[in-house]
Design a protein that fits this description.
This protein is of the alpha+beta class. It has ten helices and 17 strands. It is 34% helix and 31% strand. An eleven-stranded mixed beta sheet has the order 2-5-6-8-17-9-14-13-12-11-10. The chain has a four-stranded antiparallel beta sheet with strand order 1-3-4-7, sandwiched between helices.
Length: 313
C-alpha cells in the first residue's frame, strides 16, 4: 500500500511543503533546522507515499541497527496532514516494520510529538504503535506548560520579584542580542548543572538567520548590564522557552519575572500555550523539584514527553 523512501537532499522542497501543511509539525522539522547538525547524526528520515502522493514523514536517524526519532530534535514522531486516517496509519506502521527489518534495523526508539503542538488531533501513531508494534514506554519526561487562557495566578514569590524588577528599573528588550546572552547562559548552566548549552553561539546565530521570526531573544538589563535572558521558539500556537538564565543580580531582582510578564501579558497574549520544557535528570527518573516548582509558580502544569521502544523480529 505504501512506498517508503529514505530522504535525500533532493527532497528538501517537497519535505518542507508537507511540513508547512501538516497538522502536527513545527519549524523544527524544516530541513534548514534539522540539517544544521547533520555532521552529528546519520539522517535516516523517511517519506511515505500512497498512490504516488506524499502521505506522511518520519524525521529519524540511525545508530548501528537502531532507528531513532531524530535525536537532534526534542521530539520527532510521524508528521501527518489532515487527510491521514487511523486505518491507513495502522498499515503504515506494519509496512514500516517490514521495511526496516529488510534494512537491518532491529530496534526503534520513537519520541512522540506532545499534543499541545498539534493543530488538529494527531495521535494515530500512538494507537498504531500499541497495536502493530507492541511498543513499550521507554522514557517519560515531565514537562511544564501554561494553558494561557486559564489565567492561573502567579505564585506569591513570583509576584514579589516582579515588583522588585519594576522598582529596580529592570528593562526588557525583545529580539535582543544572542551574543550578549550566550556567555551569561553558559555561566549559569555551568554553575547550576555543570553543563553548557546544546547549541553553540555560532549554531544559534545560524538558526536565527534562517528563522528570524521563529527564534526570538529576550534580554533583561539593569542599566546597561545584562542580568537575564530567555530564548523563545515561536511555534504556531505554542511559545517554547528554549533557553533561560540569569546572573545573581537578575535572580535577586526578578529578571525572569520581568521577561515572562512582558511575554505573557503584552507581546504574546494570543498564544494558547507556553511550554517551559522538562525538569528531569537521568532520563526522567529524577525530578528537579526546585526547577519544576519554579515553573509551576507561573501557572504551569505537567505535560509528559514520552519515548517508546519496540524490537523488530
Amino acid at each position: 500500500m505504501f512506498t517508503i523512501r529514505r530522504y535525500t537532499p533532493a527532497d528538501k522542497r517537497v519535505w518542507d511543503l508537507y511540513v508547512a501543511k501538516s497538522k502536527n509539525a513545527t519549524f523544527l522539522y524544516r530541513r534548514d533546522y534539522m540539517d544544521y547538525h547533520s555532521d552529528r547524526f546519520l539522517d535516516h528520515s523517511l517519506l511515505f507515499f500512497k498512490d504516488s502522493r506524499l502521505y506522511a514523514l518520519l524525521p529519524a536517524n540511525i545508530e548501528g541497527d537502531t532507528l531513532f526519532s531524530h535525536r537532534g530534535l526534542t521530539y520527532g514522531g510521524l508528521i501527518m496532514d489532515k487527510e491521514v486516517s487511523t486505518a491507513d496509519v495502522l498499515v503504515l506502521f506494519e509496512e514500516l516494520n517490514e521495511w526496516l527489518s529488510k534494512q537491518g534495523i532491529r530496534q526503534v526508539f520513537y519520541r512522540a510529538i506532545p499534543w499541545v503542538y498539534h493543530r488538529l488531533p494527531a495521535e494515530e501513531d500512538l494507537y498504531a504503535m500499541f497495536w502493530k508494534c507492541g511498543a513499550r514506554l521507554h522514557q517519560r519526561m515531565s514537562g511544564t506548560v501554561i494553558f494561557m487562557e486559564a489565567g492561573l495566578r502567579w505564585r506569591k514569590d513570583h509576584r514579589r520579584r516582579l515588583r522588585q524588577a519594576s522598582d529596580a528599573g529592570i528593562r526588557v528588550e525583545r529580539d535582543s542580542s544572542l551574543e550578549t546572552f550566550w556567555p551569561l547562559l553558559n555561566a549559569n548552566l555551568q554553575q547550576r548543572f555543570g553543563a553548557s548549552s546544546v547549541h553553540t553561539l555560532d549554531e544559534i546565530l545560524l538558526l536565527k538567520s534562517r528563522f528570524p521570526d521563529e527564534i526570538v531573544q529576550y534580554n533583561a538589563f539593569l542599566g546597561d548590564e545584562i542580568v537575564g535572558g530567555i530564548t523563545f521558539y515561536v511555534m504556531g500556537h505554542v511559545l517554547h522557552g528554549q533557553y533561560s538564565g540569569t546572573n545573581d543580580v537578575g535572580k535577586q531582582l526578578g529578571a525572569m519575572e520581568a521577561i515572562y510578564n512582558q511575554v505573557m501579558y503584552h507581546d504574546y497574549t494570543g498564544m494558547r500555550y507556553l511550554d517551559f520544557g522538562t525538569s528531569n535528570e537521568d532520563g526522567g527518573v529524577v525530578l528537579n523539584e526546585g526547577l519544576i516548582a519554579h515553573k509551576e509558580g507561573y501557572g504551569g502544569r505537567t505535560l509528559c514527553y514520552d519515548t517508546y521502544e519496540w524490537t523488530l523480529s
